[in-house]
Write a structure and sequence with these properties.
This protein has a domain at about 5-80 and about 190-285: 3-Layer(aba) Sandwich (Rossmann fold), CATH 3.40.50. Helix content is about 35%, strand content about 20%. The protein is built from eight helices and ten strands. The protein has helices spanning about 50-55, 95-105, 110-125, 140-155, 170-190, 200-205, 235, 240-265, and strands spanning about 5-15, 20-30, 35-40, 65-70, 70, 80-85, 160-165, 190-195, 210, 225. The strands form two sheets. Strands 6-7-8-3-9-10 form a six-stranded mixed β-sheet, with helices on both faces. Strands 2-1-4-5 form a four-stranded antiparallel β-sheet, covered by helices on one side. Helix 2 runs parallel beside helix 4 (about 140-155) and helix 3 (about 110-125) packs across helix 4. The longest helix is centred in the C-terminal third of the chain and has 25 residues, at about 240-265. The chain binds adenosine-5'-triphosphate. Adenosine-5'-triphosphate (ATP) binds near residues 22, 47 and 49. One of its GO terms (molecular function) is ATP hydrolysis activity. Pfam families: ABC_tran.
């Protein structure tokens, strides 16, 4: 078998020391294969961002190691691109300039014309050509997220990391962007890792879903393979027996985790409504810890 693009070997992560020590992740073992689309689904505060940041190289493990193509990750690198929930665009730059900034950094030796063509291609790919001279404050949330997607994709990362990239968007925009990300991902088949709190989003997009346990010392749950042909059709999925089966299994597992967390820590987790829903039209807000 070929070397995984990412491998976690017995990884634990804690912040602080002594009385202030918070162990966020415990004993994570995970292999991500080249070209796969993996979704990690988890409760708020369970360590999803910590997990993805160990792949970007922004956070290092306290114990164990995280390897990229067999080599320990020592810091961020352009081959591992990340899309965040909060867009992180420069407010005084236009859509074009925000994408150009990344492209100029990655391809400084390209002639200006070639860079310009490349920037425009990615802006077009996310349907933002008419808005390319607009600044972030003139854009909707969906358009801002499209810009940040174009910016990352234009740097052609081998590994596309997404930390709840669509969490702040309304259901319709979210659904459209899920499809656009999938279309772009299918075109060049890079490896993708999506962190989400929406089980349906995970099933619609990924080849494999792994739940992250709630609370401190979170570990990974069982993996669920999503054996649905691509391109996937949201409407058809709703009545697909495999979709229904895998969705029920994941939800049951998460409900059981939520119940266990409640008993263990006397912490209330709102329970999900298990009525079948139209995939992608509702975010699983119940995965957020009840206040
Ligand atoms: N730099 C840090 N220093 C101290 N504690 C931290 C740090 N980063 C994260 N934590 C703590 O680690 C835990 C997990 O945080 P993390 O952001 O990884 O979880 P998450 O699942 O992404 O949460 P959310 O869904 O809210 O984004 C939280 O309790 C958080 O307070």
């Amino acid at each position: 078998m070929s070397t995984p693009i990412i491998e976690f070997r017995n990884v634990s992560k804690w912040y602080g020391e002594g009385d202030n020590k918070t162990e966020v992740l415990s004993n994570i073992n995970l292999k991500i294969e080249e070209g796969e689309f993996l979704a990690i689904v988890g409760f708020t505060g369970s360590g999803k961002t910590t997990l993805v940041n160990m792949m970007t190289g922004l956070v290092s493990p306290s114990e164990g190691e995280v390897l990229y193509r067999g080599e320990p990750i020592t810091g961020p690198a352009p081959e591992r691109g990340i899309i965040f929930q909060n867009y992180s665009l420069l407010p005084w730059f236009t859509v074009y300039q925000n994408v150009a900034l990344a492209v100029n950094e990655i391809y400084p030796d390209w002639p200006k014309d070639k860079r310009d063509e490349h920037i425009r291609k990615f802006i077009e790919m996310v349907n933002l050509t008419p808005a390319s001279e607009k600044r972030p404050k003139e854009l909707s949330g969906g358009m801002k997220q499209r810009t940040s997607i174009a910016r990352v994709l234009a740097t052609d990362p081998d590994l596309l990391l997404m930390d709840e990239p669509l969490g702040a968007l309304d259901a319709l925009t979210r659904g459209n962007l899920q499809e656009e990300i999938l279309k772009i991902w299918s075109a060049n088949r890079r490896t993708a890792v999506l962190i989400t709190n929406d089980v349906d989003e995970g099933i619609f997009m990924a080849d494999r879903i792994i739940p992250l346990e709630p609370g401190e010392k979170s570990g990974l749950g069982p993996e669920y393979k999503i054996e649905l042909a691509r391109p996937r059709n949201k409407k058809a999925l709703n009545t697909d027996p495999h979709f229904k089966k895998v969705r029920t299994s994941i939800l049951n597992y998460l409900v059981q985790l939520g119940e266990a967390a409640k008993l263990e820590r006397n912490q209330d987790l709102a329970l999900p409504d298990l009525e079948p829903i139209q995939p992608g039209t509702r975010s699983f807000g119940w995965l957020r810890r009840a206040s």
